Model the fold of this input.
Amino acid sequence: MRETQTVIPAPAPVFLPVAGSEAVFPVRRVYCVGRNYADHAIEMGHDPSREPPFFFQKNPQNLVINGQFPYPSLSSNVHFEVELVMALKAGGQDIPLEEALSCVWGYGVGVDFTRRDLQDAIKKAGRPWEAAKAFEASAPISPLVPADQIGHPQQGEIFLDVNGVRKQTGDLAQMIWKLPEIVTELSKLFTLAPGDIIMTGTPAGVGPVVRGDRIACGVTGVAMLDVTVI
Ligand code: MN
Done:
């Protein structure tokens, strides 16, 4: 077979590390769930009732695995949001609820950094969220852990500390849309596939960071992640 000739160098594929393994997880797409914990919806000024979930995306190239978050341009109010991360090994369209968890390869913890000032302006103008969410280095992620080892975490503490002070705390059981429901609902809108990453929403307590801040976050029994704002 002839090797494909590219007219420019092919973009590098994106991989996430796997805890305790030399092998890595190849990333295809990055989906995020909005307002999936009632107490966070309330703190953002929204009704926490169970409306259909909504989704947005980041780019695979926005993922960070070296624990460093460069403070972004054009914002002076950048917020942390700690989230459980799902990593898919299978996908499809209209995935039935009872098959949803069989699509999940593993889990990690990540931070959905958000340019909150830009997001507020974007929301007011009714414009798309990319500038607030899908910016460079906006998603530090821990090494992934296979579901084979830890199961599917549907309860357990999720937390985030800044400089040793607890800022966010919640429990996975507080998710408005549970893990299988997230996969099923997302698959109604998009064709999911192996390599897709889903950030599952954040509990209450989001807030701003400044350069030099040290974040320590995690989901008990799943993964921990340290991030320095540079
Ligand atoms: Mn989020």
In short: The chain has a mean pLDDT of 96. The pocket of manganese (II) ion is lined by residues 32, 81, 83, 112, 201-202 (CB under 6 Å).
